[in-house]
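Hey,
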Amino acid sequence: FPIPDFPIPDFPIPDFPIPDRFPDSPIPRSPTDSPIPRFPDSRFRKYASCVRSSFVAVMLLLFTPAAAWAQLPSQPIPLFVADIRGFYSGLGQDPITAADLGVLETDLPGRGFGFVGGVHVFVIRKARFALGVGGELILSHGKKQEDEDEVEDSPQLEPTTVHQRIQGLSGQLSLNFGDHDGWSYVTAGMGPMRFESYLGDDAPPERGPQKMTINMGGGGRWFAKPHLAFMFDVRFYLTRPQEPTVFYPSRGRYRMVVLSAGISIK
């Protein structure tokens, strides 16, 4: 088919004013201007090297630890552990003891400092469980001076210091849940314990009677170092009543709660 020859109109092109470039622009103003400034080769290579190094470091940080930890199996609880803990716990103010000593209940030291030391051996060790046996020693002592208002009517008398002290040794059976780096446990034990109360700074010449005492509780150990851990323990001691002796007063039944914290060594 023949293509019609349409006339093409001739539109005039408007002559818009072109603004001058910014004077501070690095783009050349004319072909005779200097080229666009570029970084020196040494600076550019140094910048590119820093970017590559940062990228590689981030990738290693994100992926390498996860892969490494995924390949490390959980190690069982170690064969043995030794503990030492300190506490400041209640000793009770028994009315029977106060009456035998001839003082008020409030004159008995209600709290005392002490420490617990123990050794535990884990005879059965599985992936996340261990059965442990061991022994613990507990020592505690508290003292309080008699209220001066009680002796103000008798100038010849001086306030008396009242002492209470605990000494005990017990065997322990524990169930432990965790791995080599930290675990929690529940424990129970029984052993002889002395709970003595007396007046004056000098202790009686004879030791107080011993009573088989049950204790139970739990706690946890966290090893921040390869062989050193922080630990805490909550323990209930079910003390038994005792009859008076020549040097020591009688005592009622008492449940003593000991919250202790310390270190463990494996």
